[in-house]
Amino acid sequence: MAYNHVLQEEKNALHDEIAEIEEKLKSSRLSPAELAELKKRAEAIRQRLRAIR
Length: 53
Hints:
Largest sheet: none
């Protein structure tokens, strides 16, 4: 039971991080390198979310 709670907390934190990245992606002041890094991080988070489902 506690394990499920930990996974849910992790999923919530990852969803929050995705939301933060999406907000940053809306900024027109990002360099191509920053944009690529954010997209790479978002994909890593999505993979982690798929892994814990």
